[in-house]
Amino acid sequence: MSVRPIDSLSATERRGLEERAAALPGFDARMRELEAALRSPVSPASQPAPSGDGTAVSRQQLPGDAAIDWIGTGSRTVLQSPLPQIVAQDLGGQVPAWIDYIVVFDVDAAGTVVPGSLIFRQNSGYTAADQKVRQAIQRWQFEAAPGSPRVTAIATLRITRDRIR
What's the pTM? Predict the structure, then answer.
């Protein structure tokens, strides 16, 4: 597992994160909190969202050990959030106790993940597993909000050994 330092991101990914951080109060602080939580044996998805500090953050638990933090002025109800089907081969034959992911993405007014907006802030380091996570999140569906602007989400997922085939 690797938390990708900001300078290791592609120019497009870095620009996307910088734009989100500039536009959304609380984004940068919440990202740092989630990264710090990953250093703990407790899942970041079980960490409470901050409250009372003036940042607009709301948390939504998902099935399994996953959660979404909505940053800014809005959130969407998750209608569909299939988890990836990772197999040992995707991890080079090694099956760790768990894999943690932090993924930032935007959701449009139709309730779909905006193509090209998905950025891994933490990934497994295994291309095949990471690609399955990317594909699963791109299939997530959220409640539509016609006329509303895009909203940014930070998803934290912990995939445990028992979910790896």
Answer: 0.70
